Amino acid sequence: MKSIKIVIMAIVLLLVTACGNKTPFSAQQPLENSALVYVYASSAMSSGEGTSSKDFNIRINNKRFLQRIKSGEYMAFNLKPEAMTLSATRSQIEEKVLKLNLQSGQIYYLRIKDNMDGDKFEFEQIANAIASKEITKTGLAGSSEESPANIITEFVNPKEDKKEEVIVKAQPATVAQPAAVAQPVANTKSLSKSDEIEKAYNLKEKGILSEQEYKALKTEILAK
Fold first, then answer.
1. Cβ–Cβ < 8 Å for 222, 194
2. H or E element: which one contains 214?
3. Is 96 buried (19+), middle (13-18) or exposed (0-12) by CB count in 10 A?
4. Strands, sheet with 83-90, edge to edge from the N-terminal-most edge strand
5. Distance in angstroms (rounded) separating the CA atoms of residues 87 and 106
6. Is pLDDT above 60 for 162?
7. Mean confidence (pLDDT) of the chain
8. Which residues form the domain of 198?
9. Which is more confidently placed, 35 or 7?
10. Helix, strand, coil % over all residues of the chain, rounded to 5
11. Are residues 208 and 135 in the same domain?
12. pLDDT for 179-220, tens place per residue?
C-alpha cells in the first residue's frame, strides 16, 4: 500500500514539474511589416483514455524549424507578408501542407489535430474566433522561450534601435566673385595727325566709313 502511494506521488510530482516548465500562452501582436502565424497542437481523444504524445516537425517554405511541437503546445512566427507554404510532418513520414497568402498586420491560426484512432492527423487553418480560445490552453513549445538557430529567412525580426544618424550640415556654396572687368588703359600718348588719318582710312577700307565721310574726317584732322 505504501509503495502504491509513493508511485502515485511520484507521478503527480512529474506532472506538476512538467506543467511548471511549460510557458503558458501569451498573446502577441504582429511585428511591423509582418504577419503573425500561430501553429498549435491539440489532440483528439481516442476511443480509450489518453491523448496522443507524438511530436511534429514544422517547415516554412520547405525549411525545417528546429524546434518540434507536440500536443498541448504552440509556436508563434512573425513572417514576411507574402505567399508562404507551411507544413507539419509526423514521424518524418506523413506531411500535411498549407499554402497561405500572408497579409501584413494579420494574425493566422494553424491547428494540428492528432487522432489516436488512426494514422491520420489534421493540419488546417482555423477561424480566429475559435482558435483564439483553443490556443489559450496550450504552452510554448520547448522548455524555454529561446528558439534554436534556424536557417529560415522568412522570419521578420524586431528592428534594432536605429543608430543616430550623423547629419552633415551642408556648407554654404561659395559665391563666385565676378571676374574683374579689365578697365581700358587710358592712352596717354596722343595720336599724330598721320596716325589719325591712317585709322580713318582703315575704317573706310572695312566699310565702316563711306568715301565722303573719310574725306570729311581727313579734312577735319588736318585742320587741327
1. no
2. helix 211-222
3. middle
4. 63-70, 55-60, 83-90, 94-101
5. 19
6. no
7. 76
8. 193-222
9. 35
10. 25, 30, 45
11. no
12. 444 454 444 456 788 888 888 888 888 888 888 888 888 888
Whether residues 136 and 197 share a domain: the answer is: no
How does DSSP assign 106-149, residue by residue? -EEEEEEEEETTSS-EEEEEE-HHHHHHHGGG-EESSSSSPPPP
**Residue 60 φ then ψ, to 5°:** -120, 115
Residue given cell 501582436 in the structure block: 29
**3-class DSSP state for residue 16?**
helix
Report yes or no: 121 and 113 within 8 Å, Cβ to Cβ: yes
Grid cell listed for 208: 565702316
**The residue type at 149:** A
Nearest by Cα to 112 from 28, 51, 26: 51
Asked if residues 134 and 122 have their Cβ atoms less than 8 Å apart, the reply is no
Structural domains of the chain, count = 2
The C-alpha atoms of residue 11 and residue 14 are separated, in whole angstroms, by 5
In a domain, 175, yes or no: no
* E strand or H helix that includes residue 1: none
Q: Where are the beta strands (DSSP E) in the chain?
A: 35-44, 55-60, 63-70, 73-79, 83-90, 94-101, 107-115, 121-126, 139-140
